[in-house]
Amino acid sequence: MKKIFLVGVVTLSVFVFSACQKSETTKTDTSEKQTSTEVEQADTSSSIENSPPSTNSESKAIERDQEENNLTDEEIAVAIYLTPETENQTIDTVIDDYVNAYEKDEGYGTKLQLSKRVLPDIILSFSSMGTTQRIHFEGDLITVTSRSNSGEEFIKTFSKKEINSRFSNYQEDLALLVSKAENYSPLQEQKESSESNVDTKSLTSEQLKDWVSAVLDTQFSMGRVSFPYDLSIENREGYAYVRVKHKELQVDTITMFRINGEGQLEEEDKSNGYPVSYKVMSSTFMDTTEVTLIE
Predict the structure, then answer these.
(1) Domain range enclosing 23
(2) How many other C-beta atoms are found inside a 10 Å radius of the C-beta of residue 172?
(3) For residue 246, what are the β-bridge partners?
(4) What's the average pLDDT block by block, 10 residues per block, for the chain (295 residues)?
(5) Contacts (Cβ under 8 Å, ≥6 apart) of 205
(6) 109/126 Cα distance (integer angstroms)
(7) 99 and 147 assigned to the same domain
(8) Together in a domain, 157 and 194
(9) pTM, two decimal places
(10) Are 117 and 220 in contact (CB under 8 A)?
(11) How many Å apart are CA 292 and CA 282, to the nearest integer?
């Protein structure tokens, strides 16, 4: 009986001891797993913090840089005009040739002239006897309408993104060419041509509109705010009048021009109140050397 009792006690003791060891082992394993998990989380966090920017962020940064280097509409207009010639020559050479042309006495046919009188479109011409281009911008699409002296019309389309990609590295040179093209007017040289013999008392409607447009373009280069305009001819009190209105906005007449009895082109002057007076802007057809700025 005592033997049986002793065997039972020993067996129970072994069982209890084994259970305790198992419990300790379980706690140790759990603790180690928790520690391992915490280390993994810490490593993951560190990896995230030290990881490079995402591809999306890099893409946005590149797009932002490209936008900052975009050409102006004027520079794009000139770049498009130069594009055919740059197929056989370097872009640098072509731009330099056009810039240097303004320093040479080779007639206005060798120089670019840029006009913004029909904003948001831009007019670019190489010679009054040659092709004139009208550049229209709409998002990334650029539509160029070319009209030759014979009346033929050609339309081409370009991508603003592609033009920027090709010419953005030449922006400084293009800006110089644009400044010369905006400030240049062949009108002084035209005085020596047959146009100087035009009878300004018997102008056609188109001739009169061209003369007024030349004066407005000169005023824009002098600081007058440019705007797209429409011209209409009126005959009043023996004078031929040209009414200038904004092409897009519903506003009153912006200004009036007229041909006086001497065949001179005059613009109304409101600086002294009403009734308005008229001031001579040009005495010779298409000559703008007398032009002053009247707001």
Answers:
(1) 1-45
(2) 9
(3) 229
(4) 48 49 49 49 47 53 55 94 90 91 63 79 69 87 80 86 94 93 64 61 86 89 84 86 90 91 93 88 89 82
(5) 233
(6) 6
(7) yes
(8) no
(9) 0.47
(10) yes
(11) 10
Task: Look at residues 153, 184, 215 and tell me which one is the last residue of a structural domain.
Answer: 184
Using left for φ > 0, alpha for ψ between -120 and 50, and beta otherwise, residue 207 falls in: alpha
Q: Which residues of 20-41 are buried (b: 16+ CB within 10 A; e: fewer)?
A: eeeeeeeeeeeeeeeeeeeeee
Q: What is the CATH number of the domain that holds 123?
A: 3.30.1460.60
One DSSP character per residue, 120-185 reads TSEEEES-TTS-EEEEEEETTEEEEEEE-TTS-EEEEEEEHHHHHHHHGGGHHHHHHHHHHHHH--
Strand-strand pairing, 141-147 and 153-159: antiparallel
**What is the torsion angle, in degrees rounded to the nearest 10, for the CA atoms of residue 82, residue 170, residue 180 and residue 98?**
-40
Residue 118 one-letter amino acid: V
Residue 61 lies in a domain: no
The verdict on 7 and 28 lying in the same domain is: yes
CA distance 46 to 39: 10
Q: Scan for tokens 């130069």, then name that residue.
A: 82
Looking at the domain assignment, is residue 257 inside a domain?
yes
Residue 224 lies in a domain: yes
Closest C-alpha among 210, 179, 16, 34 to residue 113: 179
Q: Does residue 53 lie in a domain region?
A: no
Number of structural domains (the chain) is: 3
Distance CA 208, CA 243 (A): 11
For residue 142, the one-letter residue type is I
